[in-house]
Amino acid sequence: MSSVKNESGQSPSTTTAPNQYPYEVKLTRKEKLMVYLRIGLMLFFEIALPLILFYVLKNYMKEIWALLISGVPPFLVVIYGIISKRRIDILGALIIISFIVSAIVASLKSDARVYLLRESAITGTIGLTFLITLIPIKYGTFQMRPIIFYFAKDMQTGGSFGYSSPKRNNSGLAEEISERWEIYWKKYAIFRRGFIFLTAFWGIGLVVEVPARVIIVLNTPTTERAVFWTNIVTYSWLGVLILVNILYSKWFKKQCRKIIGEGERQTAANQASV
């Protein structure tokens, strides 16, 4: 039986290329294209489409109904993931939570100042969700991982739209990447610490913004000034979070490439010597 070969004439391999991060699977051009397509679909249905629906529908109906309807696409993605992949789409679930919280606050917007706190209700809820995922909950075969771990992995596989390559002998491409990430999570402390830090950093950062916004909204003399100062504080703080995230992520990837790469080369050498 002839073996399946990739575009370079070699059999598909799960080894990583020299310029790849150790937790990335070597992909053919077709596989890369399919993964990018699936990631695009994930971002469209879970972020872009809900926002488009909300801003269009709120012109024709009450905001609370626009919010609830806008949450339907990510809800369907979550259901699809549960049925077809037996997984919960983390990004979709987070978007659903955000829209539900927004709808609850929107139903209380008779007070303009309460309405101004809607964004903080959302960021606070998301921040708490981030922190909750740091709890090592285990149920059956499921074990909780930090939410940034799931986000990063979904950006490698396309989440619930993950691509399964027929050329992979043992499993689909998405499953292969997921298995590799689980192995590195259990095997390398640097891999665990990086995602734990990023999740804790964003969780605390989002939660801390809530009391700052509440203080501003409740203590400024006018609604207009409250809007001005809350925007200044929110976007300035968000900029700090993003900057630290970028700098740390660069360091984290560099360390992963070094430590995990050395570990995998040593493992391969040990196996070859047996």
Task: Summarize the SSE layout with pairings.
Layout: H1 29-57, H2 63-70, H3 72-85, H4 90-106, H5 112-116, H6 118-132, E1 138-139, E2 142-143, H7 147-157, H8 173-187, H9 189-219, H10 223-273
Antiparallel strand pairs: 1-2
Description of the structure:
- The chain crosses the membrane at residues 35-58, 64-83, 90-108, 120-137, 195-216, 228-248.
- Keywords: Membrane, Transmembrane, Transmembrane helix.
- There is one protein chain.
- With 274 residues, the protein is mainly alpha-helical.
- Helix content is 72%, strand content 1%.
- The chain has one domain (29-267).
- It has helices spanning 29-57, 63-70, 72-85, 90-106, 112-116, 118-132, 147-157, 173-187, 189-219, 223-273; strands spanning 138-139, 142-143.
- β1 (138-139) and β2 (142-143) form a beta hairpin.
- The radius of gyration is 22 Å and the shape is globular.
- The two termini are 28 Å apart.
